[in-house]
Specification:
about 15% strand; alpha/beta; two-stranded antiparallel sheet; globular; 7-stranded mixed sheet
Length: about 300
């Protein structure tokens, strides 16, 4: 069935990807209405907004819900467009500042751990390979549908980024360091850890939240440069990434210090423009376990 779904949808996606960008955004405008009327994952989104912003009135949360739907539709067509977007167009539509920090790290023989969230358009971020000297690698979780997983990997490799699964990351890092080959490793940090892998909880958007500690562990292992990719959206179809460095030496950092730093960076990003975060995923599905464990150890 997964294969059948892929072969049904792929020709349609292929055709859509060939549309000029201005027509894609018109398609996004059209797509917004069924997404909004059918209330795509509305219960999850509203619950997340209520938890993250308990002090905000209902009309504000309703506004963010619909702004999110509009951005989500844009994100959908922008991701499809990756299949055929030209180098010139992606160069114009997503800009970067602070990339000289990454090049300086390479000159100093350092690797870079780049941390970001599901914010703005993370699928376009690998185009940073057009702006830096080191080889970029992106860590990802494979999709259950292997056909669409292969499709997404092809999109994410468009601009030279090499994709690696979470399970294979440490082995890849060890291999590259053995070869003395400099790299930039991109990690999306706001995914929920698997229940069995929860090691650290912190306050995030007013909620006790389990946080992946992998980025910090890898940063300490390579003792390289740690940066956060701050995403902004100046106008529709255009994004800017500011490379923000963590000021410190990873091996000298206190436990969870780097983790807390990038969590606060993302939290600040979200508070500035909430609609650009991926509210449709169940970010706090394990919250009850925290209170249960806290109570049992109290």
């Amino acid at each position: 069935m997964n294969k059948l779904a892929y072969y049904i949808w792929h020709p349609l996606i292929w055709l859509i990807a060939h549309l000029p960008t201005k027509w894609l955004y018109r398609f996004s405008n059209f797509l917004y209405y069924p997404v909004s009327l059918l209330g795509y994952r509305k219960k999850v989104i509203c619950n997340n907004l209520n938890m993250a912003f308990p002090e905000k009135p209902d009309y504000w949360k309703k506004k963010i819900l619909h702004l999110f739907y509009r951005h989500f539709c844009d994100l959908f067509v922008e991701t499809i467009k990756l299949q055929h977007i030209s180098d010139d167009e992606i160069y114009r539509r997503i800009t970067f500042s602070g990339t000289e920090i990454i090049d300086q790290a390479k000159d100093q023989g350092k690797d870079v751990i780049a941390i970001l969230g599901h914010y703005g358009n993370w699928e376009w971020v690998p185009s940073i390979n057009m702006h830096i000297q080191s080889q970029g690698y992106s860590v990802y979780r494979p999709l259950k549908n292997k056909w669409f997983d292969r499709y997404m990997l092809n999109l994410r490799s468009r601009f030279g980024s090499i994709n690696v699964t979470m399970k294979a990351t440490l082995r890849m890092v060890a291999t590259l360091r053995k070869k003395d080959s400099r790299f930039v490793l991109g990690l999306i940090s706001d995914q929920s850890p698997a229940r069995s892998e929860i090691q650290y909880w912190t306050d995030f958007l007013t909620q006790k939240t389990p946080i992946l500690t992998g980025p910090e562990k890898i940063a300490k292992m390579v003792n390289g440069l740690v940066v956060y990719f701050k995403v902004t959206k100046p106008r529709r179809g255009h994004y800017h990434i500011e490379v923000i460095p963590w000021e410190g030496i990873p091996r000298n950092a206190a436990e969870n210090e780097i983790t807390e730093w990038h969590v606060r960076q993302l939290e600040k990003n979200i508070r500035e423009r909430p609609e650009l975060w991926l509210w449709s995923h169940k970010r706090w599905k394990y919250q009850q376990e925290f209170f249960t464990k806290t109570k049992s150890h109290g």
